[in-house]
């Protein structure tokens, strides 16, 4: 049996996380996949020791969040391969995707 120090962070209790867009679409992903994003990880593991299983993105439309979700899954399962073929071709949507990836700290 492993004993953790008292100040050690508790493991995340949920297996799946819901990402919710501003227009009501839900994207359900495994917690390990979502935790590639430093920003989402900080949001889900609250400062007071509480854990959430939902993240609301009020400024992100479903089509942008869809591509971000696909990117997270791709990055998790296909390490070392290029994702650039799947980035939206519409310059406005591609810009939104790049802003979202930067904000979410997905490197």
UniProtKB/TrEMBL annotation:
Classification via InterPro entries: ELC1, SKP1/BTB/POZ_sf, Skp1_comp_POZ
GO cellular component: nucleus
SUPFAM superfamilies noted in UniProt: POZ domain (SSF54695)
Cellular localization per UniProt: Nucleus
Domain SKP1 component POZ: 16-74
One biological process term in Gene Ontology: ubiquitin-dependent protein catabolic process
Official protein name in the record: Skp1_POZ domain-containing protein
Organism of this sequence: Panagrellus redivivus
């Amino acid at each position: 049996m492993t004993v953790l120090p008292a100040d050690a962070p508790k493991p995340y209790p949920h297996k799946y996380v819901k990402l919710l867009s501003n227009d009501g679409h839900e994207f359900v992903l495994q917690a390990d996949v979502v935790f590639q994003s430093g920003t989402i990880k900080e949001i889900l593991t609250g400062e007071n020791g509480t854990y959430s299983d939902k993240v609301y993105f009020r400024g992100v439309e479903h089509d942008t969040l869809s591509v971000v979700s696909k990117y997270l899954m791709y990055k998790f399962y296909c390490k070392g391969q290029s994702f650039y073929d799947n980035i939206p071709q519409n310059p406005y949507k591609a810009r939104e995707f790049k802003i979202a990836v930067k904000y979410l700290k997905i490197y």
